[in-house]
Amino acid sequence: MRKIISVLISVIVTSSVFYAIPLTASAADDELIINKEARVRTGDIVTYTLNLADLKEQIIGFDMSLVYDTDYLELVEDSVNLPKFDGYFYNSNYGNIIPIVWTSISNPTDFSKKDEFLSAKFKVLKGGDTEISKWITDMYGSDMTYIKSYTWTYDMFLGDEKIVSDKVPPVASETEPGDLKQGSYINYLDGMGEENSPNAGDKHEAASGLRISESYTEIVEFTKYVSPGNGTGMNAAGVLIVTAFALFGVLIVAGFVIVKRKGKSSGDNENETEKYEILEDESE
User: Would you say the pTM of this structure is higher than 0.90?
Assistant: First the structure.
């Protein structure tokens, strides 16, 4: 009798181990690690929040991109939010990149103390290892020069639970070189500016993108305009300023710039599509 019981127990234990193996493997395949910090699962909705602090002047304009991998993450529609900015444009249909632009000379934004810069929600599509990163092409202060003192951090939420807190956001690198335009702003890997970082010299490492040349030409398309919560929204002229002044500042210095408005769809402000083309004058 004891022998029979022992055999039955052995069979049960063996069966449990046998069936547990594929379940464990399935659970591992279902887990996604973001920025080597957050562990989430397929179907989860995660909120990425980018914070900014320690600016010595107020921001009057920027051109930036939020970068993610569409194989692993899907941007939740209308989830991009920049709570401190009145009227901004972004493109949510640009592959792995979300270009965002804003400018307001008359209503600069203060980040002398830590505050939320932007947030976006993503749905987890599959398990693996991925990254949500940022790239700043240009960011100008009220003194009309690029920002030199800043501290970037990010948080990540799963529902109301904060799963990542005050980490240095990765600088985008896993994209086509042409997608990372190098303007006046310097993307330091420690998330801090040249004037306030404790690191110095070679220890204050900077990432590099494609340097904008004098012959550079590009169509810039915006698929979403988010109207301001208060004050006056950014009109077409505002977009021309941030595109010509920030993104293509090198061209302006080099010579006369022609800006052409390519088109505008009908409908309200929140769903309009606008294209602008910037060309170097060839009449010199």
Answer: no
